[in-house]
Amino acid sequence: MSKIEFLSPEGLRVDGRRPAELRMITSRLGVFDQADGSAYFAQGNTKVLATVYGPHEPSSRMRMRHDRVFLNCEFSQASFASTQRKKRSKGERGMTELEVIIVDTFEPVIMGNLYPRSQIDIYIQVLQSDGGDLCACVNAATLALVDAGVAMKDLVCACAAGSIDTQPILDVNYLESQADGPSVPVAILPKSKSVLMIQLESRLHVEQFSHVLDLAVEGCHQVGRLMEATIRENVEALAASVGAQNLN
Amino acid sequence: NQSVRPDGRGLFKSRKTTLSVGVVSTADGSALARLGDTSVMCGVKAELARPTLTAPREGWLVCNVEMPGMCSAQFRERDNSMRASSSLSSQLQRLLVGSNVVSPAALLVAEGKLAWVLHVDVWCLSYDGNVLDAAVLVVLAALKSLRLRRVEVAEDDEAAKPQVTSDDRVALSLGALPIPTSFGMVEGAPGGVGGAAARTVVFVDPSSEEEELVNANFYIAADAEGRLHGISKAGDAELSKNVTITCAEMARARAKKRKQLI
Q1: Does the model's ipTM exceed the 0.90 cut?
Q2: Global confidence as pTM
């Protein structure tokens, strides 16, 4: 029985990456005109779409808050998104938990006091899942919120790190996450360098934890720089199209 | 009056259609279609199952269309979303099964023991009217790109364990492609300045803005050879025979053009 070598003697991982290397990231803002804001975020083979509707009137009176916005998140994953066909229906616990994590992550970052008595919906759709899903969802949501023009204190950048034996690795893919090692998704606010969200579900020795966390935070900063570059490109394109109209 | 629609199109002009194939590598076949601002994605996953007792020599298709809240503000309400999803799912299933585009016998692996089941999942990512046309396009493209593993079952194997016989994969051979063209109908639009009699206006590829205004809509599914595969009309505008025949001809011409896209 062959065992997959997660870390080769040369120090390469199953997909040929070095331990501290991120997967290739592509992102685009404004992919749909129907939504107020939309974004596509792909980290390696994990592809996520996020759309934002709002601020708009709350869908029920119970959701109306007199001083702050009500944040709502709905998560869905296509059954063809994972290698084994998995039908994830609404209300499934794992999905609801993810929705709660997203709302809790963005609640302090969105300047909610600017949108009292309103609701903002964040819809997240996982098109293809290959590890690092939660982080890709957070990143996609950030870009979609920026595209929608929702006021935020900072960009929320997320990246996951884990370890194989005692070697910390960055941006864990699905195969590596199945290897019984820990996976720690982390989200930060790059400007204030504060950690906004962190999850751990498997065992990790306390001594290794600070190394893994440091690596994850470094990964988040890298992701943040890439996201910022995408946003700048998008705004420059918009400015150019408006500027061109002014000349006419 | 000049037969120009709100987005500047003529009555019989479709929106720009683009189709990309192989967008999701975890699916066995996948495609993404954009019809104007309506974006629809399809993933097909092939699984093995025991054929039913009533049809021991056939596999089958399971179609599902999802209209999630993200595609449009009107589907935020769970009821609306489920209603639209259910009705589109059953329309799609009927159209695909009825046209025999994938022959159930071609999905057989071993009689009575093992057959392929194709799970066709369609997700509407952005809704601006006319999901049906986009959905069928994307399903046909995904089915065309589908590659099945070569699988066999040993003759004497009662437990029907599938054995992969070789590494290469086989494409499905598809029958005639049933391509729908959706029309909207608005009644009582005045014909001219001099108070001419009210007439019914028929147009192709309604956007979501237009869908809200129509009295009725219908689709005609035809293939490039001119065979009709499905017609469905609901709503209260009257559809005269002449209009139906003209639209059927239009559907056939469109089917020819769209087939090249796929």
Answers
A1: no
A2: 0.86
- Please give the angle made by the CA atoms of A44, A21 and A144, to the nearest 5 degrees: 45
Question: What does the pLDDT profile of chain B (262 residues) look like in tens digits?
Answer: 567 888 888 888 889 999 999 999 899 999 999 999 999 999 999 999 989 989 889 999 999 999 988 898 888 888 888 888 999 999 999 999 988 889 998 888 888 888 999 999 999 999 998 999 999 999 999 999 998 888 888 777 666 677 777 778 888 888 888 889 998 888 765 554 444 455 778 889 999 888 888 888 888 888 888 888 888 887 777 778 888 888 888 888 888 888 888 7
Does the beta-carbon distance from A83 to B26 stay under 8 Å? Answer: yes
CA distance A78 to chain B (A): 8
- Is there a contact between B25 and A56 if contact means CB atoms under 8 Å apart? no
Structural contact between residues B22 and B145, judged by C-beta atoms closer than 8 angstroms: yes
Interface contact B70-A81, CB threshold 8 A: no
Residue with token string 């909207």: B184
Residues of B in contact with A70 (CB under 8 A): none
